[in-house]
Design goal:
heterodimer; A: 283 residues; mainly alpha; two-stranded antiparallel ribbon; 76% helix; 2% strand; B: 322 residues; alpha/beta; Rossmann fold; 2 domains; seven-stranded mixed beta sheet; six-stranded parallel beta sheet; globular
Chain lengths: 283, 322
């Protein structure tokens, strides 16, 4: 029984870390209707910067702030590629991820080990030693959820959503659609970078290949979340955890590992079809 | 809406119950030892390590039954973590065997007590895996670079400009490339970098390299290993010798190699694991060792095609393959 608890703890922790990617994908694809492929790049960038700064003894909280800024910057750039240079949506994301790969390599090399440096996960009193990461991650994701939910209720939040749904309306009331698209991407990339930062601190090292497949994790988590709710909220975190649980299950069942990616692909297709039929009923 | 939540919860509960039952079942399996194996990706070299390890360990154990649980992260670092955590969470494992760097790092991040054998990692010390009181021992795939470079120099004595073919993101390649450059310069040769970002760049890069240099040299690089048929087609077209560091690649059309034999690497790791499991040795006593490699593998057909011959001083160490 203890073993199972340990396993579930791991699932929840990873789920919480990747819930930031899920939120990132949600903000981009659902709010501003922009399929943001720069997520993987921003995730790697966040991880690399975290590794570099922490290895140089920078306070992990300051590091997190720097990472968020860098992520935001990458979002602004993606947005500018789309709005000013008129690249298409997918193209701006791909270009960004490709470019960031080199920058990431320059920042932290292909592999960087944190060793026993202080991270945000080992700052609590020793009392909670084995649940430290869990507690901190729960707090973070909860705060994230609350902040973004609140933001979406503000006037700016409404306008942001309108930029995705009804851009014409924004233009009619004299607002600049491009501004809100860039803002959405900034939030999206910031979240992805934060996720990369958490993942590196959680696992204790940075690897350039760490960001491979992150986008699909975010996508799958979001689609799972949408079977629960179409709105932003706790559902995103639940979706992310459920996806990690499914992944764990496929490993635990000891299926032929070569099928793993197909399982994910089929799962996503099934869920999308299921969601569509569901929403048709509701409409 | 509520229905959906119920459906998801039910499915997950079924999964959890199944896993719990399976864990109980596995505790009743008769195998005396259980080894959890975490492989980074599917790849000929890494598969060879796995095969060498399993076959050799079973051979060493004789009739003693031994259970292998093999998991493959398919190149994803987060999957490697998921698997490592699952291994860590189960008490049935006596030993873990990780193949290649990401797997070793992921396993090391969660498991600090039970022994971890590593293989196909080039420099475990630089990666922070090996330190006093670490629970890691194993076999590195560090090659004898000076020997390889002097072999290259003797075999293709008129080559002056040496193109180095590798991937920018691979730690193991970068470590070897650094040493290779130093050794090449020592012999008065000129190293030229040809680094690719991914498999997609390979064709263009090899063609460029073939036009610019006399000979191509590659470290133990995963992308090179995956694209070897493509590379050798081009080097044949331009009639340039191609030296690799992974012996298995010689049969695929490279000229020669004096590097790692991944199957041997796995077998050496198996011997270490055998010592840990049955002879009460601890990880410090087993330690980290380099893959034994003094043999030179030469592809006979390619050698004839390039009008080269085996230098006399190497005759008794050369193994000709085709």
């Amino acid at each position: 029984m203890f073993e199972l608890l340990l396993l579930l703890q791991g699932v929840v922790e990873r789920g919480l870390i990747f819930s930031f990617v899920v939120a990132s994908v949600y903000v981009a694809s659902r709010l501003i209707n922009f399929d943001n492929l720069a997520v993987e790049g921003a995730f790697g960038l966040g991880g690399a910067l975290t590794a570099l700064l922490i290895c140089h003894g920078v306070n992990p909280w300051i590091t997190l702030c720097v990472v968020l800024l860098a992520g935001a910057l990458s979002g602004v750039l993606t947005g500018l590629l789309y709005t000013k240079l008129k690249l298409n949506k997918l193209m701006s994301g791909i270009v960004m991820t490709t470019g960031l790969f080199s920058i990431t390599l320059k920042i932290a090399g292909s592999n960087m080990v944190l060793g026993d440096k202080q991270t945000i996960f080992n700052g609590l009193p020793i009392l909670f030693a084995s649940y430290q990461s869990l507690i901190i991650l729960v707090l973070f994701s909860y705060v994230l959820c609350m902040v973004i939910s609140w933001f979406l209720q503000t006037e700016v939040g409404y306008l942001l959503r309108a930029a995705g749904d009804t851009p014409q309306m924004l233009t009619n009331i004299g607002k600049n659609v491009d501004f809100y698209i860039i803002m959405g991407l900034t939030i999206s990339n910031m979240l992805a970078a934060a996720s990369g930062a958490f993942f590196v601190q959680y696992s204790g090292y940075f690897s350039i290949w760490g960001s491979v497949g992150v986008l699909i994790v975010g996508l799958a988590g979001m689609i799972l979340a949408q079977t629960l709710s179409r709105h932003f909220g706790i559902a995103l975190i639940v979706g992310s955890i459920v996806y990690q649980a499914i992944l764990s299950l496929t490993f635990e069942l000891q299926l032929d590992q070569n099928w793993n990616k197909l399982i994910t692909a089929v799962l996503i297709v099934l869920l999308i079809v299921f969601n569509q039929s569901l929403h048709k009923k509701m409409d | 809406m509520k229905k959906n939540i119920m459906v998801i919860i039910t499915i997950l509960l079924c999964g959890i119950i199944y896993v719990a039952m399976q864990q109980n079942n596995q505790q009743q399996v008769h195998a005396k030892y259980t080894v959890g194996i975490l492989q980074t990706a599917s790849h000929p070299a890494l598969d060879a390590v796995l095969q060498g390890f399993q076959v050799e360990l079973q051979k060493l154990m004789g009739d003693e039954e031994i259970a292998f649980v093999v998991q493959n992260a398919q190149g994803s670092v987060s999957s490697a973590h998921t698997i490592a955590q699952q291994f860590h969470g189960s008490s049935k494992y006596d030993l873990f065997f990780t193949i290649a760097t990401p797997a070793a790092q992921a396993m090391h991040a969660v498991e600090k007590k039970r022994p971890i054998m590593i293989a196909a990692v080039t420099d475990p010390v630089a990666l922070g895996l090996v330190y006093p009181k670490s629970n890691i021992c194993g076999v590195t795939d560090m090659i004898d670079v000076p020997a390889e470079v002097s072999m290259l120099h003797a075999l293709v004595s008129d080559a002056k400009n040496i193109g180095l073919l590798y991937t920018v993101g691979e730690t193991n390649s970068l470590i070897l490339i650094d040493i290779m450059k130093k050794e090449l310069i020592k012999l008065g040769l000129t190293p030229v970098d040809f680094a690719v970002g991914s498999e997609a760049d390979m064709q263009a890069m090899v063609e460029l390299a073939c036009r610019k240099v006399d000979l191509l040299l590659a470290p133990t690089d995963n992308v090179v290993a995956s694209t070897i048929p493509l590379i050798t087609t081009i080097t044949k077209k331009y009639k340039k010798p191609f030296i690799v560091s992974d012996n298995m690649l010689v049969t695929a059309g490279a000229l020669a190699s004096q590097g790692v034999d991944y199957k041997t690497s796995g077998e050496q790791a198996a011997y270490g694991a055998y010592q840990l499991l049955t002879q009460n040795k601890n990880v410090y006593e087993v330690g980290i060792e380099q893959t034994k490699s003094d043999k030179i593998f030469i592809n006979e057909q390619i050698m004839k095609f390039l009008e080269l011959s085996v230098p006399k001083e190497f005759v008794n160490r050369v193994e000709l393959v085709s």
